[in-house]
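Entry:
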Amino acid sequence: MALLAQYIWIDGTTPSQELRGKTRVIKSGNGLLPSTSYDDVNDIPIDQFPEWGADGSSTNQAGGANSDIKLVPVRAVRDPFRPGGFLVLCEVYHGNGEVHETNHRARLREALDRGAASVDGWFGFEQEYTLMTTTGSPLGFPENGYPGPQGPYYCAVGTSNISGRNFYEEFINASLAAGLEVTGYNWEVMPGQAEVQIFGDALAGPDHLWLCRWLLHRTSENHNATVSFDPKPATGDWNGAGMHTNFSTKDMRREGGYEAIITACDAIGTKVEEHLAVYGDGYQRRLTGAHETASYAEFSYGAADRTASIRIPRHVEAERKGYLEDRRPNANACPYQVADRMLRTVCGIEG
């Protein structure tokens, strides 16, 4: 018996990294079972997937004269498109074994090793995305024109409000079948725009988000649409696309943790440029102070305030414990970099 493992890695494309993947055939007999045999994807033995290589000169990660890069498996889930198969997320290393500079997961691990793991950080990523036609317009926009103003499309139903329902439903089924830590899905404010929410610890959350992005792109192959993470996919009076990041530590979650939340907000306010630098290309186009954003040129936080840089949910203020929501990260931001920066700032880790 042979099992199919789709090795997935993050490439060196700038200014926003993209996903790559290729299929490895793994022969039976090494103790690995079909992915559908594991009720919990955390039980899939990652050590049963051997390291592999790829042509870094074709992924913006090496030159042609020294093109080999190493793929090191770090997490596996079920492949919903190949029953019994696996999606295997990999870190990228140079051929000589050194961490590749595009491997932001390795930097996040380094922050955890330097003390950030002790705060038990939890992350909830609200990944917005936009379905685009093959001609480059958001799905639901009429040809050579614009739909009616924003308002009726958010969390809506009906032909006049929703475009791409078949894609949306297939993606929901695929992400659940894969075993991703998804907490919800919804249609967003602009036509053709939707959101998926991923939850996890400092490594699992970003891992599952990158796998979620892969499934979004993979699902699009079955539909006459593409997936865009552009932070401002339509110019004019339209909402952009973000990756709002909900974050908490064990101190924030305990009784009386509100003080720790305020302390974290104040600390983040001293590192504005450092955070914006990893919050995704084109944040200036999205963080204008309009369309439920704060201006990138200012920093603020407040309870239930969707015009602030950081929103503290109303129930968190009432319960005096919980989490904060940084509303600035773009849809195209790297979740490893966002988590790394958040932890380094809150934990006082330099670098």
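Residues 204-220 form the longest helix (17 residues).
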